[in-house]
Design goal:
single chain; alpha/beta; Rossmann fold; nine-stranded mixed beta sheet
Length: 243
C-alpha cells in the first residue's frame, strides 16, 4: 500500500501490457507505413556495407517487427532479444524465429556469436549505453547497426513537449541522441575496436523533397553502420563516414 505523498512507481511502456498489445498496429496507419518504408530503405543501404554478413542479433527487438524483416526479406539468420517478457510474448504472435529474454548490458551470448548486432529505436532506452555498446561489440564479428530517433528533428521536439505535459508515455525514460553525441559515444566505448562509422538520415519533413541524405539535422531517423576491426569490409564507404 502506498503512503500519502508517494508517487506511483514508474513503469516503462514496454512493461505495460495494454500498450505492448497495441504496438504493432502503429505500422498499419499512413504515418507508420511511411516510417516503416523509409527506415527499412535506409537500413538496407547500411547493411549493404557488410556483404558477407549472415547472422544478426537485434537488441530491444520489441514485437520482432524488424527482426523478422531481417530474416524474411534480407535472408539473414536473425535473433531477437528484449528485456520485456511482454514484448517477447507479443513477438511470438508474429514470428516463430529465435527470441531471447535478456539485457542489452549483459548479453547471454559468447564472444563473436553474430556477424552483426542491431539496435532499432531501442538504444535510447538503455541506462548504461557504453556498457551496452561494449557488450554488442563483444558478440559481434563485423559491426553494429544503430537506428536512432534523432534529437535534432521536429518529431523529437514534439515528443519532448508531449512528455512535459504528460501526454505521451513512450519517452519518459528515453535519451535522444544527436549525430555528434552518438559518434563520440561510439569512439569512447569501442576504442581501438572501431574501424569506421557510416551514417545517413531519413524521415525528413514532408515539405522537403528529400527522403534520405547524409544530413543529420531534420531527419527523424538516424542510421549508423559501425564497422569493427577484424570483420569483412568489402565495400567502399559512403560519403557520410568517419575513418
Amino acid at each position: 500500500m502506498m503512503k500519502r505523498g508517494q508517487s506511483e512507481p514508474f513503469v516503462p511502456w514496454y512493461m505495460q501490457e495494454e500498450i505492448v498489445t497495441r504496438y504493432e498496429s502503429w505500422y498499419q496507419g499512413p504515418e507508420g507505413e511511411r516510417m516503416d518504408r523509409l527506415e527499412k530503405t535506409l537500413l538496407r543501404r547500411l547493411l549493404a556495407g557488410f556483404p558477407t554478413a549472415h547472422s544478426l542479433l537485434e537488441v530491444g527487438c520489441g514485437t520482432a517487427h524488424f527482426t523478422r524483416w531481417f530474416a524474411t526479406e534480407l535472408g539473414l539468420s536473425a535473433t531477437g532479444l528484449d528485456l520485456s517478457p511482454l514484448m517477447i510474448r507479443e513477438a511470438r504472435k508474429y514470428w516463430q524465429g529465435p527470441l531471447v529474454l535478456g539485457d542489452a548490458m549483459d548479453l547471454p551470448f559468447t564472444d563473436k556469436s553474430f556477424d552483426l548486432v542491431a539496435f532499432i529505436a531501442s538504444f535510447e532506452y538503455i541506462p548504461d549505453p557504453r556498457r551496452a555498446l561494449r557488450e554488442a561489440a563483444r558478440v559481434a564479428r563485423q559491426g553494429l547497426i544503430l537506428g536512432l530517433m534523432n534529437r535534432w528533428s521536429l518529431p523529437t521536439l514534439r515528443r519532448r513537449l508531449q512528455e512535459l505535459f504528460g501526454k505521451n508515455p513512450f519517452y519518459k525514460n528515453a535519451h535522444f541522441y544527436s549525430l555528434g553525441e552518438i559518434r563520440r559515444l561510439l569512439h569512447d566505448a569501442l576504442g581501438d575496436r572501431l574501424m569506421r562509422i557510416e551514417w545517413r538520415a531519413t524521415l525528413f519533413p514532408r515539405f522537403l523533397p528529400l527522403e534520405e541524405a547524409t544530413i543529420s539535422v531534420g531527419g527523424a531517423f538516424l542510421g549508423l553502420a559501425v564497422h569493427l576491426k577484424g570483420g569483412d569490409h568489402g565495400r567502399v564507404p559512403d560519403p557520410g563516414q568517419d575513418r
